[in-house]
Amino acid sequence: MLVGMVASAALALTACGGNGNGATGDSAGPGSKAVQGGTVQVLANAAFSHLDPARGFDGGVNNFYRLIYRTLTTQGAAPGAEGTKIVPDLATDTGKASDGGKTWTFTLKDGLFFETGAPITSADVKWGVSRAWDPEVGIGSPYAKQLIDAPASYQGPYKSGDLPTITTPDAKTIVFKLKKPFADFGSVVAQNTFTPVPKGQGEGNQLDGKPIASGPYKVSEFKPGAALKLVRNDKWDKKTDAVRSANPDGFQWTFGLDPATIDERMIAGQGTDGDAIAGSVAAASVARIQTPQLKQRTMTGINGCTTYMGLNTTKKPFDNVKVRQAINLAVNKQTVRDAVGGSALADIATSIQPPSVAGRVDYDPYPSPDHKGDVEAARKLLTEAGFEAGFPLTLDIRAQPKMQAMAVAIQQALEPLKITVKINTIDTATYYEVIGTTSQQHDAAITGWCPDWPSGATFLPPLFDGRNITPKGNSNLAQLNDPGVNAKITEISELTDVQAANTAYGELDKQIMALAPVVPLLYEKVLMLVGSNIGGAYLHDGYSGGIDLVSVGLQNAGK
Length: 559
Hints:
alpha+beta, Dipeptide-binding Protein, domain 3, 7-stranded mixed β-sheet, 5-stranded mixed β-sheet
């Protein structure tokens, strides 16, 4: 997901995973029933990347979007596999295919309104989707642009006007013409780019400052980088929405908090912090939350994403496959895991796709004893490539202590090869936008990716299809443009059996890793501590393993 990437916005996380609830003991625990009323507090290190659904595309913000926006379909609201099932949202069903899967038709439900009271029509859905082609606005989810047929010169509704390949026969019907058959388009329309926007609105930064809600909540106060308050949207009708519980009266985000401060507040649980949720605890706090009292408030699980280091194949010497293979061999993944808190917070990654992806193959293309790196094998490859004297490497990271620690571990692992790693720190809120701009990319970046829905189609094509490299909002950070990989992606995309396609993507993982465009580092875990008054909480496999915001609430609204 983001560019499915691993993000740290609202809950310091990204896309799929998280299937457990570690709550134990005599208290009610975070999974207890949530009641109507009250305000859920959210303590966060970094602000959301974007409030505009055409721009944001990381697990934390995708989770948040479901509170204020609706799409044609969406993921379910439940722990485990039930949560990742695609279900109708604005639409009456998950779509009807015709023309061999190249045409998809959706019908809107009755009783749908924006926060303004204006009805949500098919024209508004079309307008919202068309924004994905705008070169400035459409930097989020890439699937609409990749799959929907559009003129090559089309640049969104503000610059190019109408998009003829999306039609609206009436106010309730919307029809999409695709470039080629796509069997899982009903999942694609759950992406944020399929959020309705009133026709004619949303140009520039409008929605980043003031979203137009279609979901159960609307923004009442927004101080960029500091605070965000949601209140009920009285134009939302629960009868039209089988997914969102909307138990709290509102949500209050506080951004810019130091991770250590967040942990201290969550452990103490005083005052309104008893009504709070936050991201995964920092490594330094893991030992402190092992008491029986705090374990009653913990939730843990795999986040379903892969944290990796992308290697920019357009820059020398990373255009040489032996150099990239050498780096894969040299990185000490044990020290990288130790940097994020050890085995309690991460498993070591060997393949691109994480264990949660269907069809994924468990293999290790660059093995070393205990995953501690094989410096001699790496040195041999660098000598063959003509780089035995080493070279400099600029590594982009987010401005977070965990990222800094991971970068230092990589820096130390590559030092014996005379590879001098310069760490370039970028503000967390703008990180993905910066590294997704090809002109601003450096040699390497630590990031991550999570599936946008449980299919291999949402993992390898966004990261490695060279035909989809874009100047902005680029998810192919390695800028890999390999004809063999591109051809295989095309071949798999034409399969009508989703299970067969996922199996084929598992094999493609091996083909890509032979080219070593990335270094898989970790399959991270979440370990969350929630307030004592939190109810209805579970970890959602579709949103970075984070707490599903559409179901969480308070056990006692009067506290």
